[in-house]
Amino acid sequence: xxxxxxxxxxxxxxxxxxxxxxxxxxxxxxxxxxxxxxxxxxxxxxxxxxxxxxxxxxxxxxxxxxxxxxxxxxxxxxxxxxxxxxxxxxxxxxxxxxxxxxxxxxxxxxxxxxxxxxxxxxxxxxxxxxxxxxxxxxxxxxxxxxxxxxxxxxx
Length: 155
Hints:
Blueprint lengths: L1 H22 L6 E2 L1 H17 L12 H7 L5 E5 L2 E4 L2 E7 L2 E3 L3 E3 L3 H13 L2 H7 L6 E8 L4 E7 L1
Parallel strand pairs: 1-7
Antiparallel strand pairs: 2-3, 4-8, 5-6, 7-8
């Protein structure tokens, strides 16, 4: 049941993220299965190895992990400009009364909304969600017994 709930949380994160982008007049992001696998692997790794960081225990950044997965991290922006790398948001969300968040019900939609709301309340995470150069999003959620650990990657 947890794996099914994680998949539901991922779907709601996708929907709420695109709702935020739309409310700012931005194009919706497409769900990218390769980017989602990179996100899932990082969430699983954090859950299994009890850490919470954009840098994994092997010292790899989000872009390093994407390159290791043979993901193309170079994007042509037009007029001779290129961007290299991927963006990443991570979150750990328990259920129940959460300081700074309020009450989070133990259902997929509430958990996802709390995660996206927390990202939107953080300058760096909001900047990723509202970056007009991103077209693709990947999402992976793991559960460590206490926290739902979400990784959201952008290209």
